[in-house]
């Protein structure tokens, strides 16, 4: 991806920054495409990165995620971001300096929580617990639910908000 593209790392790499580090073998990225010229963007991605499936371009356009390999064979999932939440995620993203030579742009802790709660997989809930433990009182809880609620309405899964609130209350009482 060139510097002209707006993107940030989400998922396990952001968990390394905001939560409890865990082993990961892939990278998740949101790339802003805005539902515009996506065919050209996907074509460029599949030329620059080796596809993980033979129908990678068609799959990316349908599922809004390009499944690729980086040059070092690390799997990367590049979400084609177009929702207002994804735009705001990129706007709030910041540089994480891993070492003097290496840095990544990752989503903020609040947006990571939204992504993880929305995905609603067992591993996501483990990651959420780690983020809540490490970030605790620093989190903007209002922002989390302001961003999460409309996504859960689209998904028709309001129970996820209840589960997250209970987890937050439990972590708060234990710390």
Please outline the helices and strands:
Elements: E1 7-10, H1 12-18, E2 27-32, H2 38-48, E3 50-51, H3 56-63, E4 65-69, E5 75-81, H4 84-92, E6 94-97, E7 103-106, H5 109-119, H6 122-135, H7 141-155, H8 159-174
Helix pairs in contact: 2-3, 5-6, 5-7
What features would you highlight for this structure?
two-stranded antiparallel ribbon, alpha+beta, 5-stranded mixed sheet, about 180 residues
Descriptive notes:
The protein is of the alpha+beta class. The protein has eight helices and seven strands; from the N terminus they run βαβαβαββαββαααα. Helix 5 packs antiparallel against helix 6 (122-135).
SSE string: EHEHEHEEHEEHHHH
Give the overall average pLDDT. Answer: 94
Low-confidence stretches: none
Q: For the largest sheet, list the strands in their spatial order.
A: 1-2-5-4-3
Q: Tell me the number of strands.
A: 7
User: Count of DSSP helices?
Assistant: 8
Structural class based on helices, strands and sheet pairing: alpha+beta
Anisotropy-based shape: globular
- Separation, N- and C-terminal Cα atoms: 41 Å
Fraction of residues in H or I helices: 40-55%
- Portion of residues in beta strands equals 15-25%
Radius of gyration, in Å, reads 16 Å
Biggest sheet descriptor: 5 strands, mixed
């Amino acid at each position: 991806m060139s510097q002209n593209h707006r993107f940030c790392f989400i998922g396990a790499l952001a968990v390394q920054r905001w939560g409890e580090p865990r082993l990961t073998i892939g990278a998740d990225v949101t790339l802003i495409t805005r539902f515009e010229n996506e065919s050209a963007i996907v074509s460029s991605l599949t030329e620059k990165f080796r596809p993980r499936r033979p129908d990678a371009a068609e799959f990316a356009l349908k599922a809004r995620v390009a499944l690729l390999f980086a040059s070092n064979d690390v799997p990367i999932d590049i979400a084609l971001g177009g929702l207002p939440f994804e735009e705001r995620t990129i706007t709030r993203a910041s540089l994480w300096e891993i070492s003097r030579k290496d840095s990544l742009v990752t989503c903020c802790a609040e947006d990571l929580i939204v992504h993880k709660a929305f995905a609603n997989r067992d591993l996501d809930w483990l990651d959420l617990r780690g983020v809540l433990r490490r970030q605790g009182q620093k989190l903007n809880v209002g922002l989390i639910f302001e961003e999460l609620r409309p996504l859960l309405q689209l998904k028709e899964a309001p129970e996820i908000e209840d589960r997250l609130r209970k987890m937050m209350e439990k972590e708060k009482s234990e710390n």
